[in-house]
Amino acid sequence: MLKVGIIGFGKMGRKHLESFKRIPGVSICGIFDASPGKIQEAGLKTCPDYKHLIKECDVICIATPTDTHKQYILEAIAVGRPVFVEKPLCRTVEEAEEVMQAVKKYKAKVMVGHVVRYFNQYAAIKKAIADGCVGKPAVARITRCSKFPKASNNWFNSREKSGGVILDLMIHDIDFLIWCFGDVERVYAKDIGREKIPNMDYALAVIRFKNGVIAHLEASWALSGGFRARVEVAGTEGLVNYDSRHPASLKVEHSDGNVIRENPVDENANQMEIREFVEYVLNDELPKTTLHDAYEALKVSLAALESVKSGAVVKLRRGKSE
Amino acid sequence: MNKIKIGVMSFAHMHAFNYSKCLKKIHNAEFTGIYDDNAKRGKEMAGLLGVKFFSTEKKFFAEKLNGVIICSENSKHLSMTASAAGAKAHILCEKPISVNLKDANKMISLANKAGIKFMTAFPCRFIPSVVKARRLLDSGEIGRILAIKATNHGSLPDGWFTDKKLSGGGAVLDHTVHVADLLRWFTRREVRTVYAEIDRSIYNKKIDDCGTLLFEFENGVFASLDPSWSRPKSFPVWGDLTMDITGEKGNIYIDAFSEIIDVYDDKTGKHSCRSWGSDAYMGLVKNFVDMILYNRTPFISGYDGLKALEVALGAYESAAKKKVIELPLKAKK
Ligand SMILES: NC(=O)c1ccc[n+]([C@@H]2O[C@H](COP(=O)([O-])OP(=O)(O)OC[C@H]3O[C@@H](n4cnc5c(N)ncnc54)[C@H](O)[C@@H]3O)[C@@H](O)[C@H]2O)c1
Fold first, then answer.
1. DSSP B301
2. pTM to 2 decimals?
3. CB burial readout B124-157, b (16+ within 10 A) else e
4. Fewest CB atoms less than 10 Å from the CB: which of A84, A160, A266, A281?
């Protein structure tokens, strides 16, 4: 039995609990949260001390607010526990350097939950590009829009904690583009932070990749409702496109006016990433998301934030741990 | 635990390739090899898939197979079933089960007598949107089913599909069986009457390529189906599977192959779509392997295959006689 300890029992912690529970040979060792009431409400046993939890379990899953990731990662890997941590890896470049050095020192297994790679539609886009459908890729447009996320203590509203829509949402697409096109040369970005509007954020960015691809990214926490994701990649010989507004494979209209649209899949993306994490831990099979790319995606996102602040183009620098 | 040894019989039907790829990924199955009465095709596929080719059924069955997947031309399903039954290998048989009811009945009784399990390959039962829809229907989400409007469009297939001696029928046979099976599965009822208009107006081949069916189940639920090979070469996708279900308390719309990304590729000169949906073939083949492994009753029986075939055959009879046909069909004299 692989014993899992979960730290952070909010939106994502709950999701990961469900995913771990569905994997044969995995058991839940304990759950720790700064507000233990939530765990009790869910009818589960709380673990009062995270240090104890880290000691007791075989692997740790971290799903706390972004600015608290580093401390938990370091403590877990220092005692040899493989870690699954929600994206972004952590909050700042300095924290990331510390994590990367510790990973090297302890030869630790750390996987970051860049879940977009596990959505079949995005994997299909990457495969179509790899199969040559667009020829040599030239320009990409990618979009991810939702309403402002609900969370404990409304921590997404704090730039210091969450990094805003760029570090929290755009990073998904940044990671996906890195998966497709490799490392980034430079980035330029703008967001609405100067307006200081609570519970709202919106950003646009332009990224130039080392392989020449130009990408335009949109990330929004300003939709009044719903969700929209799109990606389009054009090249010398063609174009590929995915739009979440493609018709759903299943639509249910209730006579009371309630409408549900859904694309059921055999294994959902969250389940897939957790399964790959377990296979990584048990069998050394490398997951689709590499720590290197997660580190790169974090650096690019933070460079975009730096660009917003300075109003200048930011060139990606080599990290100390590279 | 020993692996379940599975062989594939004939690559006449292109699904053989899909099933083979699944077999290679299922860890409690061993893909033992391929028999094909077309040795050139069989050898080529064996090479491509990295498995052994057997030039005769005798050598093939000498491998002590636990199961076979039959993907021959429809008219040869009977003889291959007979061989597999003789070798006591469980069978997953491509749809339609056969080209007439007599053969289909014979296949079922051969399997029964040999004490082997016979499963009909209806992969659509493993499409997640279809599975979910059935669950919603069962939970009473939209009340009783009143009527269903379905399409299973396709493009013109190559080769033996348009040779009636080998295929037994064109678009109407090819596609009606899929939808008839799903609707029997949803409603848990048999079809009682069938009406169909059928023609070969699109490609002017010696086989039906278009038509529309309107049929009714025992409980009064009625359904229409367009099984035409009516998607032109320039169409962005191969075809579709849609079911618009009208219920007492709401509607369910299934558009099973809508999970796509758009591809505009200058090499093909047209807009095409690639699927990102879950792999229904995998669900089917896994189910077959598990059936053998755990000694389960087939999830999709030979009888299911036969009853779906009967709807298609009823449609042909209706079109020929220009009247509504009652099922079950009377045995031919
Ligand atoms: N992959 C995705 O699609 C996705 C979506 C949303 C959030 N996230 C990421 O997941 C992480 C968690 O986000 P969430 O939406 O689940 O937030 P959340 O607020 O719903 O959950 C966070 C939980 O952590 C607890 N917590 C707060 N500080 C803590 C601390 N110091 N120690 C222990 N527990 C603490 C809170 O009580 C809360 O239960 C973030 O890094 C976020 O960026 C990822």
1. B
2. 0.89
3. bbbbbbbbbbbebbeeebbeebeebbbbbbbebb
4. A160
Q: Are B15 and B157 in contact (CB under 8 A)?
A: no
pLDDT at A320: 75
Strand partners, B48: none
For A184-217, how does the pLDDT look when each residue is reduced to its tens digit (9 = 90+)?
A: 999 999 999 988 999 999 999 999 999 999 999 9
Given the candidates 1.20.1250.20, 3.90.76.10, 3.40.50.720, 3.20.170.30, the CATH classification of the domain at B4-123+281-301 is: 3.40.50.720
Count the neighbouring beta carbons within 10 Å of the beta carbon of residue A23.
Answer: 16
- Residue among B272, B19, B265, B11 at smallest CA distance from B126: B19
Task: Tell me the CA–centroid distance for residue A8 and ligand 1, in Å.
Answer: 6
Q: Which sequence spans correspond to the domains of chain B?
A: 4-123+281-301, 124-269+309-326
CA distance A226 to A30: 34
Radius of gyration of chain A from Cα atoms?
20
Q: Which residues of A touch B (CB under 8 A)?
A: 120-121, 123-125, 128, 133-135, 237-242, 246-255, 262-267
What are chain A's domains?
2-114+273-290 (3.40.50.720), 116-265+297-321 (3.30.360.10)
B11-to-A21, B34, B37, B99 alpha-carbon distances in Å: 40, 9, 9, 18
How far is the C-alpha of A203 from the C-alpha of A189, rounded, in Å? 7
Across the 333 residues of chain B, what is the mean pLDDT of every consecutive 10-residue run?
Answer: 92 98 97 98 98 98 98 98 98 98 98 98 98 97 95 96 98 98 98 97 95 96 96 94 96 96 93 95 98 98 98 98 96 59
Which residues are CB-neighbours of B137 under 8 A, at least 6 positions away?
B145, B186, B245, B247, B252
